[in-house]
Amino acid sequence: MKRVASGFLPVIAVDRRASEPLHRQIYNAIRSAIQKRNLSPGEKIPSSRELALDLKVSRIPVLNAYAQLLAEGFIESRKGVGTFVSNELPGEDLNRIDFTSRGICGKHSGRPVSSNPMPPPFVARPWMFGHGAFSIGQVALEHFPFPTWSRLMARHFRQVQAKFLNFSDPMGSLEFRRTLANYLRTSRAVNCEAEQILIVSGSQQALEITARVLFDSRSRVWVEEPSYKLARNALLATGCEIVPVPVDAEGLDVSAGIRLARKARGAIVTPSHQFPLGAVMTASRRLQLLDWAEQAGAWIIEDDYDSEYRYGAMPISSLQGLDRNQRVVYIGTFSKTLFPAIRIGYIVVPPDLVDPFLALRHSADLFPPLLYQDVLRRFIEDGHYSRHIRRTRQIYEERRNVLVHSLRSEFDSSLPIIGSEAGLHLVVTLPRHISDQEIALRAAESKLWLYPLSSNFSGKRRVQGFVLGYGSAGVPEIRAGVRRLHQLLRKAKPLQR
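-> structure tokens emitted (497 positions)
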């Protein structure tokens, strides 16, 4: 693994009065920085001459320290280039994240914090950060039109205007919102004008803002069971009471939701491609949900992720487009179609709610950066975005087909496949006696990223299985990944209950 070289070191304190020799102090400081990951594999460090000048010491102790680090394999010298932290560190894989705890945080110290509702503690899991088979939330970056995007970025950097550097509209660029409104009307049948669109930094911020505007502490809100965990967290952070409503082949079971909580304050749904099971909400269920919201005075939050990728059929129009009573708040993002780091999402807000949404968005983050909005506006207007969607739809369909074929070849019918008609993932279910969490942790050791299905349930009844993403995995990697999955499942131990 290579990194962009920095040429910096963490602060090294040398004490000329200490009994420990200077070279040993320097050696210990650098070695400790590498072990603590303050210096990463492949990172450049200063030359011995530069470090000696910085520390105001003779070059000899620095050379001695570097010689010892070289001998032990902590650093490596590249002729004519410089000195770097070794890519292959001795003793252990120091580049590996500790997924069992956040080492810098430790346990809560007991110091006072807010008594307001908090989401569950963040726990890093290996399948959250992998790239390849079968990570979710990842896209085919190798097929992104880098030259086109770079050309548009370069054009803006060559012609930097004061507006890109100053405060701007908290709603987002009006020009971009007009382009986005036109796209949403034509491609997703969303009823909206630019003045209803609020630009945010991704769908998670959209969920957070929406939950805080619409719901109070102890508001009862329907969530799909299973559902997107971070959507539940946004509700929990607002103090809402989660009402898990089962999902079947037609999407959210509205009748079950009415039986569980007829007077709930709202519902969060993914009707175009339910996460994680992949069901598409039928027309009758959509109308039933809208009818319930009108009668109950409830709100519907429509998370329309992955809607552009549907295989073998035309994309499904938005739920918001059927709404005649302004009960639906529509959320979307460009992270799933372009790249996660773009951090551009949007909320289509009912006209009478624009003011409270804007006030909360401004208090949280002032305004969204203009540069990416303007580049993306040109990317859409020049037709690059629609071409990119068409091209990647073909790529993802091929990868989906290979994954389905490989699963059926390796497992026959012993591993049921769910939700393969759209999106960038599908689901396989396991027998109840096998723990998806345990297998996922073992798989991560060999860089196979299996997202446990059970982690998406909020109730006590949890189905074991995996959400298998294919967005960032090529065909050979998918086939090899399925073979490794088969090997892992053959060795799986029964779940202890």
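The chain has three domains: 1-96, 126-138+387-490, 145-384.
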